[in-house]
Amino acid sequence: MASIKDVAEMAGVSLSTASIVANGKAKERKISEATQKKVLETMKALNYIPNVSAKTLRRGESQKYVVALFWNFDFRSIMMHRFLFGFQKKIKELNADMSIIIHPYQTGELKKEAASFTGGEFHAAVIGNADGNDMEFLKESNFQLPIILYNRLLEGFSSVNIDDHQLGMMAAEHLYAQGYRRPAIIHGTQNFPGATGREQAFRNRMEELGCEIPEPRMILAGNSVRGGYECGEQIKAKQEEINADSFFCASDSIALGLLAALADTGLVPEKAGVLAIGNSDPQYSKYHAPSVSVINIPIEEMAEECCDYLYRNMYSPSSEAKTRYFETKLYARETTERK
After folding, report:
1. What is the H or E stretch that residue 99 is in?
2. Helix, strand, or coil here: 159?
3. Which class for 1: exposed (0-12), middle (13-18), buried (19 or more C-beta within 10 A)?
4. Which of the four, 17, 52, 147, 324, has the lowest number of CB atoms within 10 Å?
5. Are 334 and 285 in contact, with CB atoms under 8 Å apart?
6. How far apart are CA 68 and CA 80, in angstroms?
């Protein structure tokens, strides 16, 4: 296996310069872009892997292969539980000497965690919940460790994804097939590109089917059960103005709160349908009364693929970025069942 000394000699730079670039601190230390490029290309040619294990060994820590999960502790923390379940399941199947640690961060501020990528805390990373600023930071950083993105696309990075456009189309076609013609969209207060894409695809497809969605039917809700409940209270107060016969919810948490608020109206499922994105624990929507129709995001399967990818690239990181799309399935239940 190549050493940093081999990289320095082949690139024609000093050992310290090669180390600075390998540790992702080239900009900070004002190493020219030409030199950075030369060192990085040499590292790739020699298949050089930064010796993070040696750093942890010097600190007396385990040499187990450590993966950091970067995740935001907002409403998406519910999804993280499903991700961890899938990741740990795959570790067990592979009988891999791996462990996963949670690294909380604020979406949009991943750059504040830059030091952790070069400090020997972990050997690989899964990045969840990234926004445009975070993606730009990753693109410019050239960290020399395996990284895979959860439901985000970035040139040069491997990722696991769902087709948000297809999901929105699926939702629209299901509600239309069930006879709903006046849909409303209930979207979260904290949005992200994938959610925006789903809603836009839903709206476009509904319009193609002849069902316009006016502004009163574009409804904002907090990304929680409470947020859905408060939204439902507002819908009851403005029922005639909104005049919706179905609701496409950004999450099943919102849908559960909405149903609680509308329980005394007899609106759902007798007069209006509810369809949600299934990103929480599936048992809550399945066993609710009435049971909630959802389009499930296969978080566990996506996590398993992240684990498998990092396992396959533990000691020989792939130079080729790979993107895998996962199928989303619609589970039609009582809240969209027209009697």
Report:
1. strand 98-104
2. strand
3. exposed
4. 324
5. no
6. 13
